Amino acid sequence: MKWSPDYRVLCTLWENGAFAIWTVFGILLHCSHSSEQSINPMEPYGSCRVIEWGPDGYTLWVSSQKGITSPSTATDDDVELPVQNSSQLLLLNFLKSAVINNPHSGSIEHLLLQSEDKVYLYLSGNQQSTNGNNNGLSISVGCDVGWQVIQLPQLYIHNNWPIKFACIDNTGQYLAVAGQHGFVHFSLFTRKWKLFGNAGQERDIRVVGGLLWWQEFIVCGCTSTSENRDEIRLYSRLTNLDNQFSNVARLQSPIICLNIYDDTLIVFSYDLHIMLYGLERKDGKPAPTAYMAKLHEISVEPYVPHAVFVPFIGLTSLRTDSGLPQSHTSSLHDNPPQSILINVCGRLLLLQQERGGSSLVLQKPAKKNSLQSVTFLPPVMIAAWVECIWTISHQNSTNPYLSNALWLCCGLHGMKVWLPLYRKVDEPIFQSHRIMLTFGLTIYPLAVVVEEAVILGAMAEFEHFNSKTFCSITKTTQVFLNHVFQELIRKNLDFDALQIAQTCKSIPHFSHVLELLLHKVLEEEATSTQPIP
Q: Does the record bear Membrane in its keywords (predicted)?
């Protein structure tokens, strides 16, 4: 068994020569002896003997043996006899989801995959694409217009191979990519890259904590190699990539991961401290500038044994004691963060701010280093075996249930959704305001499109043309509303199921969801030995 260099997947090799690749919590991604997943079912891998990961887990070297046969010389039958074994060395290339190494809450509806030197982008949701390839047409999950394969400039990737981090902004029009040093960004409208003009400044930046977009600014958690210090830097895409146009905040410890919620940046560092920064945009010339103000610093040492055990951290407005908002017309700014999500070795902890305490998103402190303390309730573990997390900061007035939910991929345990429930103000306080629903997966989830109520994934398909094998990447989808309805009805939450159905009836595939639900119910009734209420 061999873990990938980033410890995201595990490759297992059996005595019979088969190998398979699994996620951290047990989802099978590839099996060499599966006719559906092998490179060519007519020409299998053979008997694999040695496996070895390449740099950053983008490649897997496989050494195997294949038996070569030749027809028998006997004239009474055509039995083939093995005459020798030949060794072969296979190189398998992999694509990574950008959210694996760079998990954040922005642009959760887009599929962004990365290879060693390319980025594969699939825009989804109600996005208006303005690049020249699709003439401004809306790209939705119901209209598969294919992937955009974006090659990094050779001037950058030659010195900074391979790709470490990649992210796309909420509009789906701007892309940022970081390699060994520095970073570059790309406009899907102009089809042009922007690089650092000063090679020394590029070599001085080593992105280690993550890369994300905030409005028209790029936020990166990095290390300055020349001064050996850890920093958070903000660069505008409207100006040249140069340190004179950047805003820098120094940290005392290396950055493990970062995330953003509206105008608040959350940073988790190696010393087990969480820092919250308020981001402020100011108009200016030649372009607007951004400033950071430190709001809070919180120690999570009692809950986290080691910093490397935390692959994700984020802010959220969700609480265990608050379900569906009473007002569905609340704006973006009426939905402030009230809790911190921390994934510790697959256990998702929710740190909830005490009611009546100081806000997590204060205004800029009047005095330097004058931070107001904030108190939290004891952490609550809301799920285990968590591999991926999707949450959104904005509320959707047309679909408040799904937009106020928390989506989790829990390996072999399937997909979980922490769904809000409608509760009247005068109802007893002991009634639960949220419920955790679980359903199975037919694809590995890479994105959640709340507007369309579907889960997106990707699959590699192999095609043969003129005795050559070609690989193509295909988007896969899975609807989930039928599972949500079924679980709610099973738990006697018919009213909430009806309310969700009312808010989702405008979805194009809603009738198909009802058909799937009916088929499932009839199938269970037909195969059950006991009456189903």
A: yes
C-alpha neighbours within 13 Å on the C-beta side of residue 33: 12
Query: Tokens in use for 149?
Result: 């394969």
Residue type at position 107 = S
Q: Exposed/middle/buried for 393, CB within 10 Å: 0-12, 13-18, 19+? A: buried
Say if CB 389 and CB 340 are below 8 A apart: no
Residues 6+ positions from 353 with CB-CB distance below 8 Å: 338, 339, 360, 374, 375, 376, 377
Query: Left (φ > 0), alpha (ψ -120 to 50) or beta: where does 517 sit?
Result: alpha
pLDDT tens figures, 165-215:
999 998 899 999 999 999 999 999 999 999 999 999 999 999 999 999 999
Residue ranges of the chain whose pLDDT lies below 50: 41-42, 74, 76, 128-144, 328-333, 366
Backbone angle region of 273, left / alpha / beta, with phi > 0 → left and psi within -120 to 50 → alpha = beta
> Burial level of 25, CB count in 10 A (0-12/13-18/19+)?
middle
- In the block, tokens 């509320």 appear at 395
Unique residue bearing structure tokens 């006899």:
81
